[in-house]
Amino acid sequence: MRIIYFVCLCTLVFGCIPKEQKEAVRAEQREQTYVSKKDLSGVMVGYCSPTLDAPFYVALEKAVRENAAKYGMQYLTTDGQGDINKQVLAVEDLLSKGIQVLILNPLDPKALVPVVKRAREQGVAVFILDSFIDEEAPYIASVVANNQMNGELLGHWVVNNIKKPHLNIALISGNQGNPVGRERRLGFVRGIAEAQLHLNNKVDFTIVSQGWGKWTNNGGLNAMEDILVAHKEINVLFAENDAMAIGALKTIKAMGLQDQIVVVGVDGQKEAYELIQRGEYGVTAQNSPDILGEKMVTIVARYLNEEPGIKQVNYTESVVIDKSNVNQFYNPNSLF
């Protein structure tokens, strides 16, 4: 069923991010390299990844490991293997090895709360990276991409760069209930609505269909196949990560619709940058594992130095990358 999102107007009352807040977020990213006053060589840091079966998570683990080494910290890592029960066991394994700091990238915002509570009871300082955990969890600080703002900026880009009489949009989401995906798509919808109001004094676009791609290339490919069987009028695809968007693009090309459908993704994956350079992919938003890892370990070092004023939620910079600026971000040697 086609859903016309005139109702997006009501979300603008509370959903849009003021310009001043955007500037504050950007200013916060311009940090100098932190120098620890304390010797941190006796600190053992444990990092638990949700999985290592994806280039993003491999690159993120590498960034955490290398930045911990810069401060001389001891380092252990475990892999949740894409299974919440295995991730709980992986965290328990780290706790059994005497870590003082736990950096956790949770698969599920609620399921990891009990083990985080146990960690704190043992005196372990807990930090959350790249994802979210329920507010009941006693963690020190988190570092995440500003997913809502990334989505909003992508929505603005679509309105300002895709000159179609009407936007017929398909969404490919990761998995149901995932807070990162939810923030990205709601930010995207708000961004379109805000930009259309600014330009035309009205909101008029259609979300034609939503598929679920499980965050993978193959998932995006299959979801796009199902969507295009019923909806050949689509002219914009928004996927909640580049991996699904890249998979979906294979389907779009196979059906000869690459000149009709503009692909929009999130993360800043190397392969997406290459497609943007070739003019086959519209735009992505930065979610750099290198920046996430560096910022996270810097905050850990600041905490261990007993610095005041550490925020509980810390965002990386929101940037959209298209053909006009892709060469500034593309690194052919990047893992991701």
Describe this structure in words.
This protein folds into two domains: 3-17 and 147-285, Response regulator (Rossmann fold); 26-144 and 289-316, Rossmann fold. The chain is 44% helix and 17% strand. It has twelve helices and 13 strands. It has helices at 8-15, 19-29, 55-70, 84-96, 113-121, 147-161, 179-200, 217-230, 242-254, 270-277, 289-304, 326-329, and strands at residues 3-4, 44-49, 74-79, 101-104, 125-129, 141-145, 167-173, 205-212, 236-239, 262-264, 284-285, 313-316, 320-321. Strand 7, helix 7 and strand 8 form a beta-alpha-beta unit. Helix 3 packs parallel to helix 11, helix 6 (147-161) runs parallel beside helix 7 and helix 8 packs across helix 9 (242-254).
Short description:
The chain is α/β, with parallel strands linked by helices.
The CATH C-level name of the largest domain is Alpha Beta
Taken from the alpha-carbon principal axes, the silhouette is: elongated
- As a percent range, the share of strand residues is 15-25%
Q: What's the mean pLDDT score?
A: 89
Give the beta-strand count.
13
| Multimeric organization | single chain
Q: How would a crystallographer describe the biggest sheet?
A: 6 strands, parallel
CATH architecture of the largest domain: 3-Layer(aba) Sandwich
Which structural category fits the helices and strands?
Answer: alpha/beta
Strand order of the largest sheet: 3-2-4-5-6-12
Give the CATH H-level superfamily of the largest domain. Answer: Response regulator
Task: Determine the fraction of residues in helical runs and give it as a percent range.
Answer: 40-55%
Radius of gyration: 20 Å
Low-confidence stretches: 1-30
Please name the CATH topology of the largest domain: Rossmann fold
The run of helices and strands is EHHEHEHEHEEHEHEHEHEHEHEEH
From the N-terminal CA to the C-terminal CA, the straight-line distance is 37 Å
Q: Count the helices. How many?
A: 12
**Total of domains:** 2
